[in-house]
Specification:
Elements: E1 2-5, E2 9-14, E3 17-22, E4 27-30, H1 33-41, H2 48-58, H3 63-79, E5 83-86
Antiparallel strand pairs: 1-5, 2-3, 3-4
Helix pairs in contact: 2-3
């Protein structure tokens, strides 16, 4: 599955960490180092597998746990409508 950031979302990186702002609801979401990596990779190109592989290579975590935690985080981002699913050849 491939995701992209929603259009009405603003974000910035400060000292390597992302802060996401939902302009519709005026909510801020400060992300930790793993969340910031995930946010950066949600670009409409990288798949869940691509992101999980990068998490495993950057942090001390096994692949199964990385993917499980990633899917939980993606579902939270979807619940807040910060990201959406995109249809690409890679996601089919």
């Amino acid at each position: 599955m491939v995701y992209i950031k929603s259009e009405d979302i603003y974000w910035a990186f400060k000292e390597g960490l992302a802060v996401v702002k939902d302009s519709t609801n005026d909510l801020f979401f400060p992300l930790d180092d793993v969340g910031s990596l995930i946010w950066d990779m949600i670009d409409g190109v990288n798949s869940v597998e691509d992101i999980a592989t990068e998490i495993v290579s950057e942090f001390d975590i096994d692949e199964e746990t990385a993917k499980e935690d990633l899917l939980v985080f993606i579902n939270e981002l979807m619940d807040y409508q910060l990201i959406r699913i995109v249809e690409t050849e890679k996601s089919m």
